[in-house]
Design brief:
Elements lengths: L1 H38 L11 H10 L5 H27 L1 H8 L17 H30 L5 H38 L10 H18 L2 H10 L5 H6 L1 H15 L5 H39 L1
Helix pairs in contact: 3-5, 5-6, 5-7, 6-7, 8-11, 10-11
Length: 303
């Protein structure tokens, strides 16, 4: 009788015990995660072995790479899982996303006419994947930072962590610039060029829009990239400033490749922010260079 009562009691209290177990599991996981993250800001043990010597050691003992490969696999698996989750969420709202991306067209999504049988499916999959990747990008970058952080000093780890939101702000800002400034200017020109009527298709339109938004978002990362390179001592603000003519020429070539049209107006819309970003990058490089020199001067006094 006692065994029967115990069995009944276990069945009745099973949901409560499961919830308690789940809460404890989550709390322990969060504690381990916080302890792991805090170690990135307290552990100063960094291997200062020269790259050449490290490569020679690795060639002699390839097994030394195994722990790093295992760690990289874990980070990549988590990043892929995040992309899968955000892509699934994007699929739930893909109709709203498609409608929003079609707003620059007069008439919206109703103006798009599919011709091929699989065109709509391919378009939905493309937009869903790109949207999912964009949403998961901050976490993907964070996983990359977690993999690289043990090889950096605490100050570099903090700068790298702060660079993640900065990179996302710049990327989203570039996409917003492409969507709200470039496309409303470029699309009327393309649709009415030489007085010819253009009937946009879903596949060509969304491929065009997503490519423009993606690459403009990437170009807006220039100031951050320049700052990080200057912080590592790979480039100098004076060199960037002296080569501004060459930089503008390179920007013009990149603008021609990115710009959806061949007219100078739309090409100028791409060039103008890139030139401004380049000079902002020079200012950031100067700031990074001063900080680097100040640390080098303080280093002997610390010893």
């Amino acid at each position: 009788m006692r065994k029967l009562l115990n069995w009944i009691w276990k069945i009745i209290t099973a949901p409560v015990r499961f919830i308690i177990w789940l809460v404890r599991k989550v709390i322990n996981t969060l504690k381990r995660g916080l302890q792991s993250i805090s170690s990135y800001f307290t552990d100063e043990e960094v291997d200062d072995t020269p790259i050449g010597e490290s490569l020679a050691t690795t060639i002699e003992n390839p097994k030394a790479l195994l722990p790093h490969i295992i760690a990289l696999r874990k980070h990549l698996l988590r990043a892929v899982l995040a992309i899968v989750i955000t892509t699934a969420v994007s699929f739930l709202f893909v109709r709203e996303i498609l409608s929003y991306l079609a707003e620059p067209i007069s008439g919206g999504i109703n103006e798009l006419i599919a011709i091929d049988v699989t065109e709509n499916i391919g378009t939905v999959m493309r937009v869903t994947l790109l949207s999912g990747f964009t949403l998961a990008l901050p976490y993907v970058i964070f996983e990359i930072w977690l993999f690289i952080a043990p090889a950096l000093r605490v100050s570099s780890r903090i700068k790298g962590l702060l660079a993640i939101p900065a990179a996302m702000v710049l990327f989203v800002g570039g996409m917003a610039f492409a969507f709200f400034v470039m496309l409303p200017t470029a699309l009327p020109f393309l649709f009415n060029f030489m007085g010819l009527t253009t009937q946009p298709r879903p596949s060509s339109y969304y491929n065009f829009v997503t490519l423009i938004m993606f690459w403009i978002g990437v170009t807006f990362e220039f100031p951050l990239v320049i700052y990080l390179l200057a912080n590592m001592g790979l480039i100098k603000a004076k060199t960037l400033a002296s080569q501004w003519r060459l930089a503008i020429l390179i920007i013009a070539v990149l603008s021609a490749l990115i710009t959806p049209t061949v007219d100078p107006v739309n090409m100028g819309l791409v060039m103008a922010p890139m030139i401004v970003l380049y000079f902002i990058g020079i200012g950031l490089a100067y700031i990074a260079q001063r900080g680097r020199l100040a640390k080098q001067k303080e280093a002997p006094s610390d010893n």
